[in-house]
Write a structure and sequence with these properties.
Layout lengths: L12 H7 L3 H7 L15 H9 L5 H14 L32 E9 L6 H14 L4 E5 L7 H5 L6 E2 L5 E2 L9 E2 L16 H13 L6 E7 L6 H9 L2 E8 L8 H11 L4 E7 L3 E2 L5 E2 L7 H8 L3 E5 L3 H8 L9 H13 L10
Parallel strand pairs: 1-6, 1-7, 2-5, 2-6, 7-8, 8-11
Antiparallel strand pairs: 3-4, 9-10
Helix pairs in contact: 5-12, 7-8
The structure holds adenosine-5'-triphosphate and magnesium ion.
The site of adenosine-5'-triphosphate (ATP) has 20 residues, from helix 5 and helix 11.
Length: 355
């Protein structure tokens, strides 16, 4: 069937996204993640591409991909990679403030949640522990500058050592996971940081670029909670390959998941999978109590178009180990499932030398 041309270059970006919401994702992959901003209301595709892409956008390919979506209702395969236009300074999808990809770091994976306290830091920590156990090299960048909790979970207090000109050696957990967190740079663990966006993105970029991470398969980034400026600032500062979304069963009702999904799409990112945390409590008789209501697993998959990686129960052992810096000792079948499923969806590892 010949491809139709439902979408033409003289249509406004906003009108296309209104009718085909997934088009925002295509625009973002071509360096036009402004698809969601107010300019797009009046800007045509042609003007947007000329203005933000600096003439580097292949219009034929962009229009072909948009019309594939219009024809089939599905995102075309082989879209340009997320952040493919990074570094070229092209468009709002690759903000000037984004750190250049680091030689040696395979993929940067962000762990995100719509709202706070759902176990995002815990899932970030567990993912790193699980991948390490399976022989991969991983590091954790605590992107929650104002509420860092990763060092405490791993029992790491050591300050990063200075390694040559303006470079830092991240301290390692007992299990050998390098960790970088604002918490490790402050005089006291309870110290509060009140920073504005530009300072936060500066710090995050430095945590990525000026830290001796060594060779990593994955760098796990614990994002700040919410769907507002804080996680956005961090995501825009780093070349993120994929996002793991953490939620609890009751969160779907409050639309936070939908908001988080939209935010990731606007940035042209990929949601690799969803983790439903605090799904249930196992009673001594083996029965399951769904404290926060029934699992929303299926709805989550529909809302995010991404697989459910695991349902993690409320487990007093988790809370205890996380509070005492012993998270690396945790084992459970659900945890194994999370790690196995993550490996199945994780972006193909680019050999470090290929960067
Ligand atoms: N499945 C679980 N079972 C028991 N305790 C849990 C579980 N998940 C998280 N917790 C505990 O709940 C608290 C909040 O978890 P965590 O800090 O990971 O959430 P968060 O989403 O990162 O929070 P914030 O929004 O503040 O960054 C922690 O004390 C953690 O140990
Ligand atoms: Mg946290």
């Amino acid at each position: 069937m010949a491809q139709s041309t439902l979408i033409t270059v003289d249509m406004t970006i906003a009108s296309v996204v209104d009718r085909w919401p997934d088009a925002a994702r295509i625009f973002a992959r071509y360096g036009l993640s402004c698809a969601s901003c107010s300019i797009s209301k009046s800007e045509t595709i042609a003007a947007g591409a000329a203005g933000h892409g600096g003439g580097r956008i292949d219009m034929n390919e962009l229009m072909r991909d948009l019309n594939t979506l219009a024809d089939t209702g599905k995102l075309p395969a082989n879209l340009p990679a997320a952040n493919a236009t990074a570094g070229a300074g092209a468009g709002m999808g690759a903000p000037k403030g984004m750190a250049a990809p680091q030689t040696g770091i395979g993929s940067v994976i962000a762990v995100m949640s719509g709202k706070g306290g759902v176990g995002k830091s815990l899932v970030a920590g567990l993912l790193a522990v699980g991948l390490k156990r399976r022989g991969m090299s991983v590091g954790i960048l605590d992107g929650d500058i104002t509420g860092p909790s990763i060092p405490r979970m791993f029992g790491v207090r050591e300050k990063p050592a200075v390694a040559g000109a303006q470079r830092l050696m991240p301290p390692k957990s007992r299990g050998g996971i390098p960790i970088m967190s604002m918490n490790l740079l402050l005089p006291g663990e309870e110290e509060a940081v009140i920073w504005r966006g530009p300072m936060v993105s500066g710090a995050i970029r430095q945590f990525y670029s000026d830290v001796e991470w060594g060779t990593l398969d994955h760098l796990i980034v614990d994002l700040p909670p919410g769907t507002s400026d804080a996680p956005l600032t961090v995501m825009q500062a780093l070349p993120i390959a994929g996002v793991v979304l953490v939620t609890t069963p009751q969160a779907l009702a409050t639309m936070v998941v939908t908001k988080a999904v939209r935010l990731v799409k606007q940035l042209g990112g990929d949601i690799l999978g969803i983790v439903e945390n605090m799904s249930y409590v196992s009673a001594p008789d083996g029965s399951r109590m769904e404290v926060f209501g029934p699992s929303q697993g299926l709805k989550l998959v529909i809302a995010s178009n991404a697989p459910l990686l695991a349902k993690i129960p409320i487990d007093p052992e988790i809370a205890h180990l996380a509070d005492t810096g012993m998270i690396e000792d945790y084992t459970s079948p659900e945890f194994d499932e999370l790690v196995a499923n993550f490996i199945a969806v994780a972006p193909a590892l680019v050999p470090a030398a290929a960067h």
